[in-house]
Amino acid sequence: MTGAALSWRQFKAILRKDIVMELRTKEMLTSMGLYTLLTMVIYQVALSQTGSAFNVRLIAAGLLWLAFVFTSMLGLNRSLVHEKDQGVLDALLLSPIDRPIIFFAKAVGNFVFLMVVEIISLPVFWFLFLSGGGPASVPIFTTLWQLLFALVLGSIGIAGVGTLLATMSVNTTGKDFVLALLFIPLMYPLLLPAVSSSSAAILGGMGATQQFWQGIGIMAGYDVLMLLAAYALYEFIIGA
Amino acid sequence: MADVCSGNAVEVQGLVRAFGARKALDRVDLTLPAGAFLSIFGPNGAGKTTLVKVLTTLTSPSKGTAKICGLDVVKDAVDLRSRIGLISHNPLLYPDLTAEENLEFFADMYGVIDPKQRIRELLASVELDHRRLDPVRTFSRGMLQRLSIARALLHRPDVVFLDEPYSGLDPHAMDILDSLIAQIREQHTFVMVSHDLAKGLELCSHALILAKGKVVLFEPRERIDPEEFAALYRATVGSGVA
To answer: What's the ipTM?
Structure first.
């Protein structure tokens, strides 16, 4: 078996194993999904006294990304837990696998779980905050593809950086705290264009197309840079 | 990549592994021929598990060299990993996957050819074929250890590391493990960490006592008098001094 064929087989095996175990235990999806929905309920309570003059559309993209970033941390904290808790990480590291393959398989798994939660919670968000009559209503199908595009690029960055940081923090005491401490500052350059392009998708209007594509471009650049950095650093980080 | 182990299976020269100022391994030298069975003894904190971790590429040496079947544990780590297997007191299996799914996963990790056939053979040899579709979390300690042996042998390694494999096993499970080791004894080189002197000496062709990271004794089994060995071991464990 050639090196590339073995790497592809190893990548598929790790991804398939993570998906099968998640479908069986539903640990990540349940906790992430519930957390997102509860966050949205709290948003609604927090915004309930703002009155009809307040246009929630102006901050909708920020609210959405806030929920997804904190939700992702719940999942990322659990992404290496199966390996760590059962000591299986040693068995994985004993196999003849290039370490970046572990990173890419884990990151793709985290991306898939995050997208599932986002796709499930997006209609709820729309219903709670953007579907009302009058100026607050947004035509869903005209902006949906743009919003999904922004979510995909943002989620790639979250999954990539998050997987790297989750690996760094898995052996530390207080790993939840360590992950949050490292994750939020590194997410900042991604969050700004993510909110900007999502906001352009939701609000529309003059200059929205330019604002949207500008945000998408920055997110794509961030994703490429962070994935390359993670690829280069993962061997050192997982072996530390 | 070197051919199948024919000369020395393990070659260690001047090996040092330091954690800060503390040396877990201190200038360890060791040569073990292919097909040998090395039992490693020593008190807690002697460096036994650290030695196994270095030899299995799970941690890097601070100084010195270590080779398995001619492959350097640092420079040739990826190739070397396909030549070794590890059976630990921890089964290194995913509890939420079935026995078969666990072995399929590790067969993919090692690029095992015709994995279904190999998994069938191994599950039969560890007497777990009737439980192949059950989640591993439902297994007893003995069954976990048997499945762990199947996992470690999936890719037909040249050198098998056993890190306190009898730990926590009941007498029946110990008998099964003995019989499995006896079945595969001829085809592999073994390196076993043990606290059980009698068991370790019974199985080994070479014995090593480590204390404070240093080699106290390394001899072929035929040169060892069990009573003198036991006395030396007790003195080493008692004083913790090399």
So the answer is: 0.86
